[in-house]
Amino acid sequence: MEMNGVIERKLRLLEQKVADIREWDIAQYNSFKNSSLQISAVERALTVCVEIMIDVSERILSIQKIPPCDSSVENFKALEKLNAIQSVDKYADMVRFRNFVVHRYESIEPEILFNIISNKLDDFLAFTDEIRRFCLKK
After folding, report:
1. Architecture of domain 5-137
2. Which pLDDT band, with edges at 50, 70 and 90, does 108 fall under?
3. How far apart are the first and last CA of the chain?
4. Any idea what DSSP says for residue 105?
5. Which of 11, 17, 86, 116 is the most exposed, having the fewest neighbouring CB atoms within 10 Å of its CB?
6. Strands (E), 1-138
7. pTM for this structure?
8. Hey, how many other C-beta atoms are within 10 angstroms of the C-beta on 27?
9. What are the distances in angstroms from CA 32 to CA 8, 107, 114, 116, 122?
10. Are 68 and 61 in contact (CB under 8 A)?
11. How far is 107 from 130, CA to CA, in rounded Å?
């Protein structure tokens, strides 16, 4: 599959969002949990990152003439079957996080957000790498 311009733009935006979060230099949980501005910014940026991943997965399936699945997690499972991604597991957690934010936004714990930005940002970049490799080998 040749790299689609829309997909590449979205992957670059995903990389930029991760870079933005890192530039915010949020290193201390105690200061983070007391900053509604940082909490809101991180929540929004992470949600956008997952939305980009979902959109990219849907576009790849469409290009491959595979109908969309009933859920975003199922779409990622389809990407795994295509060998576009190695494992659906870490990406499924991201989709679940996004769903939680969207549907239960009033109860997001700052600790969850802090954990993601401290330990999971590289997963977004792993996704961009996997998708680019898939597009280049097809």
Report:
1. Up-down Bundle (1.20)
2. confident
3. 4
4. G
5. 86
6. none
7. 0.92
8. 10
9. 32, 16, 8, 13, 20
10. yes
11. 32
